[in-house]
Design a protein that fits this description.
The chain has about 375 residues and is α/β, with parallel strands linked by helices. It has two domains: about 5-60, DNA polymerase, domain 1 (Orthogonal Bundle); about 65-370, TIM Barrel. It is built from 14 helices and 14 strands. A ten-stranded mixed β-sheet has the order 3-4-5-6-9-10-11-12-13-14, with helices on both faces. Strands 1-2 form a two-stranded parallel ribbon. Strands 7-8 form a two-stranded antiparallel sheet. Strand 13 (about 295-300), helix 11 and strand 14 (about 330-335) form a beta-alpha-beta unit. The structure holds S-adenosyl-L-homocysteine and iron/sulfur cluster. S-adenosyl-L-homocysteine binds near residues 120 and 199.
Length: about 375
């Protein structure tokens, strides 16, 4: 019999698992609370579970976390971990502390198949989907480590953004149970408004998420015309802007927030001109007559050599933001956090997939090579 990883289950999944062992649902609830609220991984710690159940669990289950390859702490308190997910693949998780919240930026895939031009993960290609346990293990580890680190009994992470490596809506079946565990009062008890899925626009899965597990939605827009967007985000050829905006409107009927966050990566001379801003305003205020209730989050591009792209000037970013704001659209410019440790972030997949070196040696190499993607992740703390 294979050993189940209990991090693979939301509460319903764990209840079904316990039922197979002849145990009642409330046992699953106790177990779920031990794992996610108390950070327990050793069944012997779980003192209010019957000894017989603990014995049974030891025979068929475990709480299997991920191995941490590196941890980097920034002067501003941002922390990044690189987790080994086997076969030479690694994923990145970033904690961004702020006065009123703690945000964790979580990865959903090793690599990404969408292949956006400005994204280093996209350039490196797709390795594989993460399992539910691998998505949840990032939160499980970070939350309980940080509680110990800060000597706190209560929750440290108040917000989760699915903005690390990968396209979460192309790993839907693993994503949804992970989201449910984040939201569950017996799990992390996070508010739906404080869990954000960021997508490059996988329209059918946006519709499914609206019904299965509506959380806050960020859509990576990046361009005001199909021609340009298809160039930057190849998935646009399948789901062009009009369809994507329709999907946003449908999503809003179920969403916990009454707006969609549009992310817009500012690329020098490519999508950052006043004309682009005007076209965007036209889209989001006129689409289907009513427009799409939204906020914009402008992300100054984090350059990397293979992209052949440059970051927009501050003046261009400010001018762009001013045009959107003047049209009545709430617009923020994402601030960069953890600059001094950016090096360890984001561009892991390709590097790791070469897998010629021991993981730790490669992690050291990455410190020099992996600059770009991190600040996009580290900076997206404006979400909730
Ligand atoms: N795949 C999802 C979520 C992960 S990417 C998505 O694309 O939405 C999270 C955000 O970082 C996206 O808005 C993405 O466009 C942005 N991003 C990717 N590479 C970047 C870079 N080099 N500089 C700035 N932002 C980047
Ligand atoms: Fe994938 Fe998002 Fe990067 Fe595009 S921006 S390649 S969807 S991770």
């Amino acid at each position: 019999m294979t050993t189940a990883n209990l991090l693979d289950f939301d509460l319903d999944g764990l209840a079904a698992f316990c039922e197979q062992l002849g145990e009642k649902r409330f046992r699953a609830t106790q177990l779920f609370r031990w794992i996610h609220q108390r950070g327990a991984s050793d069944f012997d710690q779980m003192s209010d579970l019957a000894k017989s159940l603990r014995q049974k669990l030891k025979g068929c289950a475990e709480v299997r976390a991920l191995t941490v390859l590196t941890e980097h702490v920034s002067a501003d308190g941002t922390i990044k971990w690189l987790f080994d997910v086997g076969d030479g693949n690694a994923v990145e998780t970033v904690f961004i502390p702020e006065d009123d919240r703690g945000t964790l930026c979580v990865s959903s895939q090793a690599g990404c198949a969408v292949g956006c031009r400005f994204c280093s993960t996209g350039h490196q290609g797709f390795a594989r989907n993460l399992k539910t346990s691998e998505i949840l293990a990032q939160l499980w580890y970070a939350e309980h480590l940080l509680r110990r680190k800060f000597g706190r009994d209560e929750r440290v992470i108040s917000n989760v953004v699915m903005m690390g490596m990968g396209e979460p809506l192309q790993n839907y079946n693993a994503l949804v149970p992970a989201l449910r565990a984040m939201l569950d009062d017996h799990g992390y008890g996070l508010s739906r408004r404080r869990v954000t899925v960021s997508t490059s626009g996988v329209v059918p899965m946006m519709d499914r998420l609206a019904l299965d597990c509506p959380v806050a939605m960020a859509v990576s827009l990046h361009a005001p015309t199909d021609e340009l967007r298809s160039h930057l985000v190849p998935l646009n050829r399948k789901y062009p802007i009009a369809e994507l905006l329709d999907a946003c409107l449908r999503y809003l009927e179920h969403a916990p927030r009454d707006f969609i966050t549009f992310e817009y990566c500012m690329l020098d001379g490519v999508n950052d001109q006043p004309e682009h801003a005007r076209q965007l305003i036209e889209w989001v205020q006129r689409h289907r007559g009513t427009g799409v209730p939204c906020k914009f989050n402008l992300i100054p591009f984090n350059p990397f050599p293979a992209s052949g792209l440059l970051r927009s000037s501050n003046a261009a970013v400010q001018a762009f933001a001013a045009l959107l704001s003047a049209a009545g659209i709430v617009t923020t410019v994402r601030k960069t956090r953890g600059d001094d440790i950016d090096a360890a972030c984001g561009q892991l997949a390709g590097d790791v997939r070469d897998r010629t070196n021991a993981a730790t040696r490669m992690a050291q190499k990455r410190v020099i090579e992996l600059k770009p993607v991190s600040s996009r992740a580290a900076a997206l703390s404006t979400g909730a």
